[in-house]
Amino acid sequence: MIFSKKQYVLYIVSLFSLILISYFFIDKTIAKYFLSHVPVYEGVGDFISIFGESHWYIVTALIGFIVFKYFKKNELFSQRFLFLLYANIFSGLISLVLKFLFGRIRPWGMRNGGDEYGFLLFQNFDMGFVEKMKYHAITLSDAPTTYTSFPSGHTTTIFTAFAYLSILFPKYLYLWLSLAVILASSRLLANDHFLSDIFAGIMIGTISTMFIYSKMKEKIEKVY
pTM for the complete prediction? Predict the structure, then answer.
């Protein structure tokens, strides 16, 4: 999971390209399929999605940090749990800010033959700037859950955990990746996200974790 600057750029460009391709050519098709098979997939997707909720990881990190900082007295382990905490908070905040900035409607907008699709940020250019921003804010405040599809917060959390585990336990990289893909895919089954939302969550989760790692590398790798 340690890349050169060129590899980071290639990684970001690749995921950004996947986001664009998915948005323009794939998202609607996948969303319509799962919307038309709600009884088959949605319950399964909702259940699996539980494991992508950030509070599980934040609480685990807090408990681990407290235990190893003040009771077990293991500085290495306490720093590793702190790394998990910081990575989740940092990636989560970025995801939250982008959700409200872009204001993307969830797949729900296409239920019952609806055609609502896209980002509030890139709509209503016939309005003046102030009027557009006011409309954006009012729409989000009236339906904050409906217009916060991009990026996927669950996927951000899942791939934050994936990057974290891959850094500390690289031997099991393919296991972590398999679990992460399964958990992230549940957001499609649950009709809560588009594929491009998933790609965006992957990028934010992994890059954010690598950034935190670069700041804490010595503390979480040092043997005391």
Answer: 0.95
